[in-house]
Amino acid sequence: MRKWYPAMLLTAIVTAAAPAQAGGGSLDKDEIREVVKAHLQEIRACYNEGLARKPTLAGKLTVDFEIAPSGEVNSSEIQQGSTLADAKVEGCIASAVQSWKFPAPTGGSVQVSYPFELLPG
């Protein structure tokens, strides 16, 4: 039996050197990227559950989330247009992101859109 090892290509909307801003606050994109990177195992675990059901599962999705002034994630959802087409995996990823803690933004909340490409490897 072949084992699937998911490869995740990460491309982020938050790639510029300027801080992410929305809702009046700002947070450095590198700080956002570091938190996402620290939690990639959670994203992989969600994806692996989907691969167990459908070994060819692949696609792109973007998670929209709001980082509160405290650094907690207020809300997290998958944008319309996900090509992953697996509601369980998408829900799992949105729930995982909801539990993350970021550094406190300066000046208020921050809205982030973070894309992931999930491919079986």
Automatic annotation (TrEMBL):
State the source organism's domain of life.
Bacteria
Gene3D superfamilies this protein is in? 3.30.1150.10
Q: Which SUPFAM superfamilies match?
A: TolA/TonB C-terminal domain (SSF74653)
Signal sequence bounds: 1-22
**InterPro entries, alphabetically?**
MasK-like_C
Q: Which UniProt keywords apply?
A: Signal
Q: What is this protein called?
A: TonB family C-terminal domain-containing protein
